[in-house]
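Re: that backbone. Tokens:
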């Protein structure tokens, strides 16, 4: 094994949620590793910024402006790749409400993006990989919320727990065809999703989260992107059905 195991030259990756945060960092790093990256998001301006970052580094990028809850549009975009080696289903939204105040529409909206959107991406990617008979890597984005039951995070945590079950089930179903399926479950990471409108509140939150970590800091989007690259590459060729937790040690489940 050598560093060549991380080389994605000649491969094609599809990244949802690529307009910012972990999705953008992952798309840029996969391109830096040599992949042609198809970037998908509903934020057209953010998508073009991501593509520009990739191209400025000499990489190859394509953009697809879409909502991951639109199964037909997402499927069309994935199939346009013709060949697919890596799917990184990263798109997600945040919602906070106490259990007793959670409405049907809140749950439906979060499940629609954070679970169904991931399911659709996995389905389309697996079909294309199976048709090409070249194997591949599917990476889903879970969350540290699967381990904590944090107050206010019922919708978000439930959707991410469902993503874990999807990951394990699909890994069992397509493994014999050379397709690996793994999840990344980040701890608290500094991204637009975790931004607070109030700067002082943001600093207090980051300080509190950093104190919970044995490493004494919060995560950066690039920290999570490196986990995505590992799972996308041949370096993880014997890894499937696993939950990779770059969380600073906040949770250490067996």
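Recovered sequence:
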């Amino acid at each position: 094994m050598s560093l060549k195991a991380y080389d994605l030259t000649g491969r094609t990756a599809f990244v949802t949620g690529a307009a910012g945060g972990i999705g953008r960092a992952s798309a840029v790093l996969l391109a830096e590793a040599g992949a042609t990256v198809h970037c998908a998001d509903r934020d057209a301006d953010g998508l073009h910024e991501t593509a520009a970052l990739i191209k400025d580094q000499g990489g190859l990028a394509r953009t697809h402006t879409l909502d991951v809850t639109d199964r037909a549009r997402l499927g069309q975009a994935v199939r346009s790749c013709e060949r697919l080696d890596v799917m990184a289903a990263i798109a997600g939204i945040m919602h906070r409400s106490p259990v007793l105040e959670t409405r049907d529409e809140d749950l439906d909206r979060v499940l629609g993006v954070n679970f169904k959107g991931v399911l659709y991406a996995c389905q389309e990617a697996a079909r294309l990989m199976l048709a090409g008979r070249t194997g591949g890597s599917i990476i889903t984005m879970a969350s540290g919320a699967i381990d904590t039951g944090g107050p206010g995070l019922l919708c978000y945590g439930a959707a991410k727990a469902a993503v874990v079950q999807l990951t394990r089930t699909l890994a069992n179903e397509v493994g014999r065809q050379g397709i690996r399926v793994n999840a990344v479950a980040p701890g608290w990471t500094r991204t637009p999703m975790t931004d607070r409108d109030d700067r002082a509140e943001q600093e207090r939150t980051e300080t509190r989260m950093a104190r919970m970590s044995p490493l004494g800091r919060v995560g950066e989007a690039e920290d999570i992107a490196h986990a995505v690259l590992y799972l996308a590459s041949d370096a993880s060729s014997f890894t499937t059905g696993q939950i990779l937790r770059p969380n600073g040690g906040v949770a250490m489940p067996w």
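The domain at 3-244 is CATH 3.40.50.720 (Rossmann fold). The helical segments are 21-32, 44-56, 71-79, 104-132, 154-174, 199-212, 221-232.
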